[in-house]
Amino acid sequence: MAEDLKIVTDVSKEEQYRSLIPQIQALISGEPDQVANLANIAAALKEQFSWFWVGFYLVKNGELVLGPFQGPVACTRIQKGKGVCGASWQRAETLIVPDVEEFPGHIACAAASRSEIVLPLFKGGEVIGVLDVDSEYLSHFNEVDAKYLKEIINLLDV
Ligand code: SME
């Protein structure tokens, strides 16, 4: 496909996701390289939503290691159970954190980050990484984000 995204603004968050998802599907379909696909997903999400930070951590040798992302430089390694990312990995569930200061053990890669959503990536029932999105606004993420971000990571053939 052409590498230009069509970005929609002034519509609901649902509509923004619905416009973006088929474009992400077209971008990654037929491409077997995981890093390439994770990189394009992070870039597409950043371009549509202008979030503070969006990217992936991948499980490597028993810890989460920073993968493709968009935003400021971030912590490179996260232990299982640590921070929101490590907790999402350990619990194998999506975590929505309206105020990171109220999440015990939150890892502040950037002081500007106020709220966060983390979704696990599964392969054969195992968590093989997480998608992490950070916002500089409190309570920025809700079940709508959880639903559509899950749809997006389900497009990955990981
Ligand atoms: N805040 C995350 C760490 C990753 S960065 O925000 C990019 C956490 O608590 O797991």
TrEMBL record:
This is Diguanylate cyclase. One of its GO terms (molecular function) is L-methionine-(R)-S-oxide reductase activity. SUPFAM superfamilies: GAF domain-like. Residues 42-155 form the GAF domain. It comes from Pedobacter steynii. GO terms for cellular component: cytosol. Belongs to the free Met sulfoxide reductase family.
